[in-house]
Write a structure and sequence with these properties.
InterPro entries: K/Na/Ca-exchanger, NaCa_Exmemb, NCX_ion-bd_dom_sf
CATH topology: A middle domain of Talin 1
Strand content: under 5%
Low-confidence stretches: none
Membrane topology: Multi-pass membrane protein
Helix content: over 70%
CATH architecture: Up-down Bundle
Structural class: mainly alpha
Largest sheet: 2 strands, antiparallel
Number of helices: 13
Number of strands: 4
Protein name: Inner membrane protein yrbG
Radius of gyration: 18 Å
Distance between the termini: 25 Å
GO molecular function: calcium channel activity; calcium, potassium:sodium antiporter activity
Shape: globular
Strand order of the largest sheet: 1-4
Pfam families: Na_Ca_ex
Number of domains: 1
Order of helices and strands: HHHHEHEHHHHHHEHEH
Mean pLDDT: 82
């Protein structure tokens, strides 16, 4: 009972803290004159991954690599199968392929990079440096390519910033939003990890499974909120772009930082099963972006069914 309440309280704090931090960061960026393009690309696209960042770093520092890695891999799987599936069921999604093809390709390449670097059974500081360098290269490439010409991707990232409403309007309100958001994220990560680890031990479930499922879904709630709202507003490009940006930052940024702070051994089940599901989910999304450019309700239902099957297998076979 205690572990379950701690888990739910942690998820709630992470969700509220992530929301407060994003709104404060977006308002601060716009206040100091950062372009909507850069704000959408970095602050919104990556800011929704703040819960994953705090939880994975906390887990890595506290010698809980299965949760640190599982949180990232599970979040990337859930972002595509669960969140985009849910968005498509709510409202069929039609996207501009030119706005999303680059980021879709980067998600697949980042997934392949993860598989290649983790082949030896662990991610070390050298691997972390490669991840972080890859993220820096992606950001420079994305910003330069979008700022030089009028392309759909630039419009999409600018629209991501415009999706954020009810932003703090004064300097002190921005500071309060940032401080409160950060505090909630830190406190929420502690509660989430306490509840998740206790629950795993009480139920005889591995930390890897808990990290890949319960923790991953809990830390992905900000992405879910942004994408669902965008889908309801018929802004399919923003919904999909938010997921792609989050998945890129999860692998290249969060995993890179976590592995730099503390080398991360890979759980055998992640190497045998979960990383391939992650790559397969990315491949399905890219196939959608390069072919039909439309995600219908039945295709969204198929993604949700795939996620249900993944969760079932996670708790029964592994």
């Amino acid at each position: 009972m205690l572990y379950g309440l701690s888990l739910l309280a942690g998820i709630a704090l992470l969700t509220l803290g992530g929301e407060s931090l994003i709104r404060g960061a977006v308002a601060g960026a716009l206040r100091v004159g950062v372009s909507p393009l850069l704000t959408g690309l970095v602050v919104v696209g990556f800011g929704t991954s703040a819960p994953e960042l705090v939880v994975s770093i906390d887990a890595a520092i506290n010698q809980q690599p299965d949760i640190a890695v599982g949180n990232i891999v599970g979040s990337n799987i859930g972002n595509i199968l669960l969140i985009l599936g849910m968005c498509a069921v709510i409202c069929p999604m039609v996207v501009q392929p030119l706005a999303l093809r680059r980021d879709g390709l980067v998600v697949v390449l980042a997934s392949l990079l993860f598989i290649g670097l983790s082949f030896g059974g662990a991610l070390g500081r050298f691997d972390a440096a490669i991840f972080i360098a890859g993220l820096a290269g992606y950001l420079v490439w994305a910003y330069l390519s979008e700022s030089r010409q009028h392309i759909p991707a630039a419009e999409m990232h600018a629209s991501e910033a415009e999706e954020m409403t009810k932003l703090p309007t004064t300097g002190w309100m921005i500071a309060v939003a940032l401080v409160i958001g950060l505090g909630m994220l830190i406190g929420g990560s502690q509660l989430l990890l306490f509840g998740a680890i206790g629950l795993a031990q009480a139920m005889g479930i591995s930390e890897a499974v808990i990290g890949l499922t319960i923790v991953a879904v809990g830390t992905s709630l900000p992405e879910m909120a942004v994408s669902v709202i965008a889908a309801l507003r018929r802004h399919a490009d923003v919904a999909v772009g938010n997921i792609l940006g989050s998945n890129i930052f999860n692998l290249l940024g969060i995993l890179g930082i976590s592995a730099f702070l503390q080398p991360l051994p890979l759980a055998p089940r992640v190497a045998m099963f979960d990383q391939w599901v992650m790559l397969g989910a990315a491949g399905v999304l890219v196939l959608f972006l390069y072919t039909g450019m439309r995600l219908s309700r039945w295709e969204g239902a198929a993604l949700l069914a795939g996620y249900a099957a993944y969760i079932t297998l996670s708790f029964t076979i592994f």
